[in-house]
Amino acid sequence: MGLLDGKVALITGGARGMGAAHVRLFLAEGARVVFGDVLDEEGKALAEETGAAYVRHDVRSAAEWQRAVGTALGLHGRLDVLVNNAGILRYGRIADMPPEEFDRVVDVNLKGAWLGVKTVIDPLTAAGGGSIVNISSIEGLIGAAGLSAYAASKFALRGITKSAARELARFGIRVNSVHPGAINTPMVQDPDLAREVDAEAFVKAMVIRRFAEPVEVSHVVAFLASDRSSYCTGSEFTVDGGLLTGAGY
């Protein structure tokens, strides 16, 4: 028996990296999955491999949110879970970052998640309740030089999570945030970030001194999507190898 048997889940940014790990684990745990992304080639390949349904989905667009949710409802008749996983990271110190780049990060990471919460309220309510999992970051808990736009979006996502948890509890909808640390994904391979960050010192600051595999985050996300987390809402779950214990970060 799977942790997510009978659940229908929509996962954004699901074509690769952590999102793809969520797709695979949710399927393994018995969920029916629709996932979106703007990476069509990778998204279609993952859909063919796994049997999950792929939809092109720019999370900045309210119309594309309606299409993604409509796809899930059309295929499966209901929606129980939203994982707001889509996100981008751009390295740049405040003095050097163009305002347009700041806007793009906030539009994808923050506005995109807000639109997702807004769009799924009715279908989750119709299903008798459900779970929204917002993927934030440790940068939503503590800032870092060169990541002002990313940190701003991820800090703000915590606020949306807590407000939504209060607003939506009466509909049986739980809303929580997950805060990954150093995860082996394409996002952390950004060349500008790699030039500026001392990876060895970063790892030494952890209690568990290694980068995590994406599925290690997915297990926490699946727990929050499941009924086993029925008393969890408005909460923040770190998956960071102990990075934020104060051990030198």
Automatic annotation (TrEMBL):
Enzyme Commission code(s) on record: 1.1.1.53
Keywords: NAD, Oxidoreductase
Entry's Gene Ontology molecular function annotations: androstan-3-alpha,17-beta-diol dehydrogenase (NAD+) activity
Lineage top rank: taxon: Bacteria
InterPro entries tied to this protein: KR_dom, NAD(P)-bd_dom_sf, Sc_DH/Rdtase_CS, SDR_fam
Pfam families: adh_short_C2 (PF13561)
Ketoreductase domain location: 7-176
PANTHER family: DEHYDROGENASES, SHORT CHAIN (PTHR24321), ESTRADIOL 17-BETA-DEHYDROGENASE 8-RELATED (PTHR24321:SF8)
Family: Belongs to the short-chain dehydrogenases/reductases (SDR) family.
Name of protein: 3-alpha-(Or 20-beta)-hydroxysteroid dehydrogenase
Species in which this protein is naturally found: Nonomuraea coxensis DSM 45129
Organism classification: Bacteria, Bacillati, Actinomycetota, Actinomycetes, Streptosporangiales
Underlying gene: fabG7
